[in-house]
């Protein structure tokens, strides 16, 4: 395996969830906060993990960008930065916007956070050699309007985006599971169900990016009767390690 893609030495995770928005015209969601909290707890089992959880009124545009900047500043070459968002999503101005707690649908450019803004903000961090993974659990989140591999973010590190749904699909919540379906399987996979078995005694079982995606894709598609198809794009190596599970 390429030595550039060994287990990152430290891991930073920022997890954002909003169910009840400040603006009353924005419909409420049900399980975004639970999904963000569950994935944060799963990621926090990783050695040397630094996590931040922003829920409801704490998940303002300013707070999200401030905490992301903090993690970008402190991440070193070879580290992993995971940014997870479970909120409403909107496609407008040829871009995908996720909606923080204080978002105004009539002023998305000023109150939403676009995928282009987010990815361009990460550019300098990626150029320093940090491996970045963005995970969106939002409707229509596959509608990023440009090719990551051809953007200014290509550098020593890497950037990939894992979307809960393709551009024309909704991200479905499950009342029986009391979770978003995609996030449910993300949490399962990150906790170990997507881990690759090792042959040696007492070896840690890695959860690789591609293995996690394959696990989440097949189960999300099945659980939604093929109404939802997660998408993975970007430049990270398939064997980027997202977690390690004790044998």
Spell out the key features of this protein:
247 residues, Rossmann fold, 6-stranded mixed sheet, 3-stranded antiparallel sheet, 7 helices, 28% helix
Q: Can you describe what's shown?
A:
The protein is an alpha/beta fold. The protein has one domain (3-245): Rossmann fold. It is 28% helix and 25% strand. The protein contains seven helices and 13 strands. The chain has helices spanning 32-43, 61-74, 108-111, 115-121, 123-127, 181-193, 209-223; strands spanning 11-17, 49-55, 80-86, 89-92, 95-98, 113-114, 131-137, 158-163, 173-174, 179-180, 205-208, 231-234, 241-245. The strands form four sheets. A six-stranded mixed sheet has the order 2-1-3-7-8-12, with helices on both faces. Strands 4-5-6 form a three-stranded antiparallel sheet. Strand 9 and strand 10 form a beta hairpin. Helix 1 packs parallel to helix 6 and helix 6 (181-193) crosses helix 7. The model is unreliable at 1-5 (pLDDT under 50). It holds the Pfam family Peptidase_C14. One of its GO terms (biological process) is proteolysis.
